[in-house]
Amino acid sequence: MKQTIFLLLLFSSFVYSKYRDNHSCKECHEKIYEEYQTSYHAKGYFDSTLHKKIADKVSTKTYVCASCHMPMADNIDDLISGVARPDINNKTHTDAVSCYFCHTIAYVQKSHSFNINIKAKQAKGYKPTLYGRLTNPDEGDQHSSTSTNPLYAKKVCMGCHSHKLNDNNVTIFKAMKDNQESLGCIHCHIPTLAGGVDKVDKCARGKHVSHKFLGIHDKAFRKTGVDINVTVEGKLLNVTLHNKMEHPLIIQPARAKFLKIEVQRAGTVIWKNYKNFPSEDKQGYFAYTFKENGKDIIIPAHATEGTVHNLEANERKMIPYNIPKLQKGDKVIVGLYVRFAKSECQKVIDLSKNPSLTKEQLIRQVSLLQK
User: Fold this and answer.
1) 29 and 172, same structural domain?
2) 177 located within any domain
3) Closest CA to 83 of 62, 58, 56, 55
4) I need a surface site. Which of 36, 179, 318, 363 has the fewest CB within 10 A?
């Protein structure tokens, strides 16, 4: 009994220290703060139209997405259970995937349906300890620091970016394998850049880790993930896609990526790989599809089955097409595009005021001129 009381007293002395909101980080890390503000980690329920509309379509009572999209919420259990709703006046809600959250992860708890980031306990009344991969960290007014934490090279991305299964054990998100380390994610999405960023650079560092978290929404960055090669033999067009990324081509259920192929002769299109909709070309259209009890559905929260046409990490795939025999001067144009909200989404949520989500965005394009 005495041992139980001792353990309870010990545990009660370690609680989360006062929350440091995103803006408080700007005091010392102005450049990193500016980078972060442009990222999709900074966009949560109140800033991401697509996320908010999908979350509300799933439920206007519970906000089960909070564990990843609002992880520092001071009432996260109430949000998930439906006792409370997201509050635009609460900084722990509006900070989305906040600086404080990402730098206070103690470990990743793996599970079948989805992983959970476990936040580190902090000693009450003391400055919080922040974690990362920085050697020789500075200590500031807002926090103390620690040396390189192995978690931040191994598993830190696994908490939110690994996988998600719905209540029917249907995969609705898949980005990382169970044994995959976070360093691959880091090298691409948060690379080391030249230039120090602290207002007072005590350690005279000449480089820093980017906090833009670049991804598919960045026009220049998305060109780097996939190579396209085109060859023609007689009436056979071969399009080879090489996914150079360490994750599948399609990881999110709302998106679609697809090929748009045209054969032009004297400025006129004489052949296309689809007539009206990209999904007509089954082999060149990459997306998730879901059913609930045999019926097609768009929002996958209640799906009883799901499939995905994908290009896996580091996979190379050749896709053949039968085209008219080329003549001298004919041009073949092959583009890979993305829609952040595929056409079907507009059947269940109104995105008419958000054309950037619904219109096709070019990922990469190549062309071949017949000589």
Assistant:
1) yes
2) yes
3) 62
4) 179
Neighbours of 308 (CB within 10 A): 17
d(CA 33, CA 31): 5
Instruction: Report if residue 70 sits inside a domain.
Output: no
For 8, counting Cβ atoms within 10 Å of its Cβ (0-12 exposed, 13-18 middle, 19+ buried), the class is exposed
The CATH code of the domain that includes 250 is 2.60.40.10
Residues pairing with 316 in the sheet: 242
pLDDT by position in tens, the chain (length 371): 333 333 333 333 334 568 899 999 998 888 899 999 999 999 999 999 999 999 999 999 999 999 999 999 999 999 999 999 999 999 999 999 999 999 999 999 999 999 999 999 887 778 888 898 887 777 778 888 776 788 999 999 999 999 999 999 999 999 999 889 999 999 999 999 887 766 666 566 788 899 999 999 999 999 999 999 999 999 999 999 999 999 999 999 999 999 999 999 999 999 999 999 999 999 999 999 999 999 999 999 999 999 999 999 999 999 999 999 999 999 999 999 999 999 999 999 999 999 999 999 999 999 999 99
Q: Which residues of 95-133 are buried (b: 16+ CB within 10 A; e: fewer)?
A: bbbbbbbbbbbeebeeeeebbbbeebebeeeebbbbbbb
Q: How far apart are CA 297 and CA 186, in angstroms?
A: 35
Residues 22 and 131 in one domain: yes
Q: Does residue 158 sit within a domain?
A: yes
In a domain, 1, yes or no: no
**How many other β-carbons are positioned within 10 Å of the β-carbon of residue 27?**
13
Residues spanned by the domain of 317: 219-369
Structure letter (DSSP) for residue 167: T
Cα torsion 350, 308, 356, 160: sign: positive
Number of domains the chain is built from: 2
* Whether 131 contacts 152, CB under 8 Å: yes
